[in-house]
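Internal tracking record. Fields below are filled automatically when a chain is submitted to the structure queue. Please do not edit lines marked as system-generated. If the sequence contains nonstandard residues, flag them in the REMARKS field before resubmitting.
Queue: standard
Priority: normal
Entity type: single polypeptide chain
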Amino acid sequence: MRIIVVGAGSVGTHLAGHLSSENQDVTLIDASKQRAQVLQDQFDIMVVEGNGASPRILRKAGIERCDMLMAVTNSDETNMIAALAAAQYNVPFKIARVSDMDYYPLDDWLSEHHLGVDLLINPEFECALQIMNLLGVPEATDVAEFGSGQVLLVGLTVHEGAPCLEGPLHDLKIKFGVENYLIVAITRAGQTLLPHGSTHLEAGDQVYIIAKKQAMDYVYEFCGMDRKPIKRVMVLGGSKVAYYLCQMLERQRINATLIVADGDRAEELAEELDETLVIQGDATDVELLEQEGLNEMDAFLALTQDDEENLLTGLIARNHRVTVVIALLEKLEYVPLVKKVGVNTAVSSRLAVVDTILKYVRRGNILSVATLKGNSAEIIEFIVTERCKLVGTALKHLKLKTRVVFGMISRGQDVFIPTGFSTLEVGDKVVVIGQPESQRQLEAMFP
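SYSTEM-GENERATED OUTPUT FOLLOWS
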């Protein structure tokens, strides 16, 4: 597939790198000559210097032969113009990143149809959705849904004394009768492992488990954790992410206290939000946080536009024994610091855009895609078509060039973890886990 990415910020760079690793034909456009040169050297892609909204630059990038355009600069207007230009060149798929709330909801005069855009993405809204998913599975670092919502993939940290430490995974399956969940990937010391039956877990491992929704209590127990519902939340910051999130919390009847430093912004949000308690004050003022009930909170969400402040206040919350601490980090180099300061997980509006776009890119027989923080594995949900050559063959007899894990099969109303004796049927939804180098093999397996 020939793909043009407009904008070489963190979103464009992540997209270009990811797509390039899958051997897609990627051209990146950016106005910065220096950044363009660096990326040309870093990735095996074509880089064009210039304004991505310019028809001349788009032609230079090969817009006439392009299958997909992704406009992801920091300028909403540039992105919309680039997508509109791509529509004039009959590019089949156009994606534009649009952040300004004034453009939403899309009225008749400004809609995907009139812009010729197939997908408009609001990064801050997508990020807020990710946080809501995380709050539904407390202390998880990653959450993704599969099987029309019947199946969850969650990332959890193994605690000392957890039952999952009592032997190799094969023995644990026999001992605990594990039928509704499966460990599909492990992060240990920065390395990604796809487990075998002989794999032993260690305390501190980040494990990625695929499970039926109703089995989540057992998953927590297996990892040595208690699952407590989120009822009270403290949110810091007047960012767009914080605003969208508070709206979602109100709809879920979760009590939220929002602390905003800027007085005008605090007043504005107090008028916009119906059920949220909005307080004007310094997010780093420990006395203020304590007065507003920090010690009684089930979750603490540091969503200011200052990454350093989010890490610092996350540390404060952890020292006050708040169980779930989530920080908004746009500087991705800070992500490795998350665990060191006691924050459960970090979210990024920029990475939320990347995840949303990758799910859109892989459509057709691919139903959904999940990428994991700090883990190179990808989790992909396929639908089995009549063209799939795996139909009727026991999984243990498949001859694969790279190792993959079959995590879950949905068949009608039934959802089950496959064994080596399981076979696929036309119409099945199957969740498969593999490293990036497995992508080509997986696409060939599920045409």
